């Protein structure tokens, strides 16, 4: 009984302690972007960043009204890969992304900023030119990513970033199997010829983007690596059916269809030989040389990749996953 009275006395003298004891733990939830954009007050730079990233072809692509703003070389939008307005785990979510920079980038062998990362996408995935890092457009894109990241706990940043884990099969890509998987799971959206589905008014770009050909990412993009593409496909495709936590395709199926998609022609990026000054850091499925090993160009493009991964682990103690 004395303990009870002491407790009551303590809380009478220290009411703030009672308030602390009543606090609940709030679990961070990603924003409902469409709802917030429609109903919430959004700072103009955040809204402009959202527009740029979700309608890139309109503001920065070949169809931009101002010729000087035609910095993207294709009619994709940034959210062609960064799905659900950049808010979908397993598709390179932008939630928390600005907290991860600056970070070391093997492709340049240097520390890179979030602006550097965006410009890497502009030159490769968008097959275009860099944005001025002090431009209104660059600042707006970063502002939108900051807005998506508000309140995200540090331990959640890693959870939502990147794509998903994939165990590389110890076999080369089977293009026949890849074509079968593409026919079964992909042509409804991306069409049999892989050229995607356009909006009725092409000023709005694509409903579903092309996967190869002239109007897509170039051969220097990360998505042109079979293992990177397979990770993305496993976590996200077929769209609206697969999720990072509940994929539809197996690792092997995602692997074969990624190889099939990347077997076709696409725009060529200049000066790829300057990527990865330290060649030991080059991802094993980078399909263009030079490399710090004697494996063939064919194996770097289509696998099998486990022998290459094992080589770098044994010789350089570098653990690679893509």
UniProtKB/TrEMBL annotation:
InterPro entries: Cyt_c-like_dom (IPR009056), Cyt_c-like_dom_sf (IPR036909), Cytochrome_c-type_DH (IPR051459)
Name of protein: C-type cytochrome
Annotated ranges, domain Cytochrome c: 44-168, 173-265
PANTHER family named in the record: BLL4482 PROTEIN-RELATED, CYTOCHROME C DOMAIN-CONTAINING PROTEIN
GO molecular function: electron transfer activity; heme binding; metal ion binding
Upper lineage: Bacteria, Pseudomonadati, Bacteroidota, Flavobacteriia, Flavobacteriales
Cleavable signal peptide: none
Keyword tags: Heme, Iron, Metal-binding
Keyword DNA-binding: no
């Amino acid at each position: 009984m004395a303990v009870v009275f002491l407790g009551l006395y303590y809380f009478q003298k220290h009411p703030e302690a009672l308030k602390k004891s009543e606090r609940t733990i709030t679990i961070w939830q990603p924003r409902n972007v469409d709802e917030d954009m429609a109903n919430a007050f959004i700072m103009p730079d955040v809204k402009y960043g959202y527009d740029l990233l979700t309608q890139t072809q309109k503001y920065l692509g070949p169809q931009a009204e101002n010729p000087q703003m035609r910095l993207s070389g294709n009619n994709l939008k940034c959210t062609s890969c960064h799905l659900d307005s950049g808010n979908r785990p397993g598709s390179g979510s932008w939630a928390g992304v600005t907290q991860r920079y600056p970070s070391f980038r093997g492709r340049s062998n240097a520390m890179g900023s979030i602006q550097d990362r965006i410009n890497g996408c502009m030159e490769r995935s968008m097959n275009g030119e860099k944005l001025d890092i002090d431009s209104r457009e660059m600042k707006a894109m970063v502002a939108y990513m900051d807005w998506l990241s508000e309140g995200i706990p540090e331990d959640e940043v890693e959870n939502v970033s990147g794509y998903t884990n994939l165990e590389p099969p110890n076999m080369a890509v089977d293009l026949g199997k890849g074509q079968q998987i593409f026919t079964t799971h992909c042509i409804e959206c991306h069409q049999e010829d892989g050229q995607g589905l356009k909006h009725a008014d092409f000023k709005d770009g694509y409903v579903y983007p092309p996967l190869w050909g002239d109007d897509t990412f170039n051969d220097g993009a990360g998505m042109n690596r079979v293992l990177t593409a397979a990770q993305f496909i496993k976590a996200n495709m077929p769209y609206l059916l697969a999720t990072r936590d509940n994929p539809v395709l197996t690792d092997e199926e995602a692997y074969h269809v990624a190889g099939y998609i990347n077997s076709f022609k696409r725009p060529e990026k200049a000066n790829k030989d300057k990527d990865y000054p330290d060649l030991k850091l080059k991802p094993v499925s980078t399909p263009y040389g030079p490399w710090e090993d004697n494996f063939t160009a064919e194996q770097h493009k289509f696998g099998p990749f486990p022998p290459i991964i094992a080589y770098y682990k044994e010789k350089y103690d570098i653990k690679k996953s893509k």
